[in-house]
Amino acid sequence: MGISEGEFRSSVAGARGNGRPLRLFVHGYNNNYQESVYRLAQIAEDARDNRGAVLFAWPSKASALGYGADRAAAAASKDGLAKTIEILTEPPDAQVALLAHSMGGWLTMETLAKMSRERRGAAFERFSNVALAAPDIDVAEMVGQLETIGRLPRPLTLLVSRDDKALGLSRIISGGRRVGADDVHDPWVQAAARRYGVRVVDISGLRTADDFRHGRFTAMVALYSKFQRQIEDPLAKHYAGPGVFVFNTVTSTLEPIER
User: For the CA atoms of the chain, what is the radius of gyration?
Assistant: First the structure.
């Protein structure tokens, strides 16, 4: 059973409490509602950063063969996600971390581009961080989205893995090079990160029980609070700015790749 906008606003107000920051999670392809709720609950428990948890659940077919249907469903969900973002960011002191996985990353970027075109980008000022994990986005399409959105107030974070098998299949199905499988040692990727104000982080070193290596970002969640403090620390300028990095699994820190 769905809830009204008023009920949602009331729930968000309760989750926010006295200025409590929020995390908005946008799930990916082939994830049903129950799986997405479980994943967000796991993220919240592992992160231990006291953020209120909000799930944007778009209607995935939850089928490995439903890629085209999921893409259409995600495209039809842009208005809903835009409205959700505006509700979460209404208070002047709102702090919202937006985390999107896989096709949810495409939906997120399409939504932010739409909001930018409609001059609704004031909400972006309330983002403490926007992170796309294994984004299932064609590289050329991502460039167009970034051109429309412009630089966010804080660098967009992309968590990528060169050996992501699910994105390899996505490339076969839809064609085009996938952002989530970018090589941080590629000079083009390095130049694009600087140009568009993006922080690209290679998390290929993280262990994962996922045979497709597409949910690897969940292994990073327990370290997320430390990682978040690094990229938000005004003294840690090499983290705060755009660029390319490798996540060091031993020290749980970002290692910048020098040009």
Answer: 17
According to DSSP H, which parts of the chain are helical? Answer: 5-16, 33-47, 67-75, 78-88, 103-117, 139-149, 165-174, 187-196, 218-221, 224-232, 237-240
Full-prediction pTM beyond 0.85?
yes
Task: Judge contact between 213 and 166, C-beta under 8 A.
Answer: yes
Say how far apart CA 99 and CA 157 lie, in whole Å. Answer: 9
Q: Count Cα atoms within 13 angstroms, Cβ side, for 101.
A: 25
How many residues does the structure list for the chain? Answer: 259
CATH topology of domain 5-256: Rossmann fold (3.40.50)
Q: Which residues of the chain have pLDDT under 50?
A: none
Distance CA 198, CA 193 (A): 5
67: tokens are: 């890629």
Domain ranges of the chain: 5-256
